[in-house]
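Quick one - inputs below.
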Amino acid sequence: MDSKQFNTQILTLSDKLFRLAKSMLRNADAAQDAVQELSMKLWEKRDHLDEVENMAGFTMRAMRNHCLDSIRQQKDEDELPAEFEQKELNPHQQTEQKDMVERIRIMIDNLPELQRTIIRMRDVEGMEIAEIAYVISITENAVTVNLSRARQKIRDKILNEQKRVEETVWKG
Amino acid sequence: MERMNELLEKYFGGATTLDDEKELKQYFASANVIKEHEPFRALFVAFGEELTEKAAEPLKKVMPKQRSIKRIWINTFAYSGIAATILIALWIQRPNQAENYAVVAGNRIEDPEYVQEYTEKKLNKVNEILHSSMRSTKSIETVRQSLQPMQKIAETSQKLEEIENNIQFK
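Output:
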């Protein structure tokens, strides 16, 4: 694969790769680094990339594996960056936080890694179930089960949030 | 609204198709969302906003550039190596011009007879210097031998002292 093909087929995926890395690592800087590192690795192995049939799927899978390695390494070092910690809104923030969209993002970030990766691949990137299964290396049924669980958790949290807001208004 | 209720149920059950989800996104982006569905509007808005997130640094410019610098270094080392090999080979294979002339007192002399004569003359001079050095060595040896009786006198004197001491003791 020459540089022109590399630019066309892989570097055009950089935004998608960044979003996947950010979702997994929950840190924009770490995600940016991960995308750069993966791109370097792929560039060094560009001579073998001609054999890959599904380049987008292959690259996404490589990105996920790269992020999983980073997460494992962080766990080994036991030095989790601040953004890796579970983000929960304190009562003050809950009162002050008007932006429901931001709260939903935090809800998604607090899902288990597999579930948040799947829900974002599906609902943000619009990927087919089969494609997600290929990237994550699990069965399509497992993808559907995890997607359903992730969405139900988010729905329950949204409804609880709604209930809390209504109770606050009634009490007020 | 029956349709949207049905789609939402399917959605949270993980059973919607991409087309179903597209329909839901369009519904929540419209002004027709009923109060019952309003809490879920932010969910679809959040997905839409996340899709607009982009990598901070464009990779397109970085990648080939970094590689080209690496390539330049590799090429530089390779060409330097080849050039060095050629130079060494030429130096080893060079014609041996030293046989045809000699440098005497900064002058290039190409007459072999003169060079031979000059060399013999210089060697003879070296030989003379060596002989004279050997003569001085012989003189040192002569002095050393002449001092040997003095050493014997000292030894005899020491023995006499010992005998004398023994006699007094007795």
